[in-house]
Each structure stands twice: as C-alpha cells, then as structure tokens.
Here is the input.
Amino acid sequence: MKLIAAYLLAYLGGNSSPSAADVKNILDSVGAEADEEKLEFLLAELKGKDITEVIASGREKFAAVPSGGGAIAVGAPAAASGGGAAPAAESKKEEKVEEKEESDEVSIFPPC
Here is the structure.
C-alpha cells in the first residue's frame, strides 16, 4: 500500500509517470523503505496506463465483490423458526430495567 500511496502522491504532485526513483524519494522522506521487487511490478503494471482509468476499473471490480450480506440471510431462517422470539423479549425487559435505573439517577438531583 505504501508503494501505491507514494506513486499516487507523485502523480498528484504533477508527475504523470512517476519512476522508481520518484517513489523511493517519497518513501525515503518519511523514513519508509521500498521493496524493489514490488516497486518494479507496480511500475510495470501501470506503465502506459492512465491512473484515473486504472482507479475507475478497480472501483468497478470492487463493487462486484460481495461484502458480507450473507450473515443476515443466515439469521433470518432462525428467527422464522420461533427461536428468535425469546431474545427479543429479553431485550425489551433489559430496556425497561435500564429506563428505571436512569429515572432513579435523575430523581436524586433536585429540580433546577
């Protein structure tokens, strides 16, 4: 990530095609080291490409990735089977208890 961040900083600084030396200078300025192999791979992958198009393409790919919606679907059948009614009742009782505790705390202080 630091290589990509340094590359993008160089790009945002006006360098439309940052070199390995440019990326290394940015990383050196903050005391970080560049992995030569990863840096060369990054530069080879981005060579001749418009960075805005690369980012847009990545966003499209990322949007297609599922993001954890399965947990809700798994929990729904359990609630439909009747097992979910008891926890709901418990939470209502807890809310009532909390309300009473709060009202006790408020009644300690005289009205202003």
User: Anything to note?
Assistant: Residues 71 and 82 are 18 Å apart (CA to CA). The chain has a mean pLDDT of 78. Residues 1-64 form a domain with the Arc Repressor Mutant, subunit A fold (CATH 1.10.10.1410). The helical segments are 2-12, 20-29, 36-46, 51-63, 70-80, 85-108.
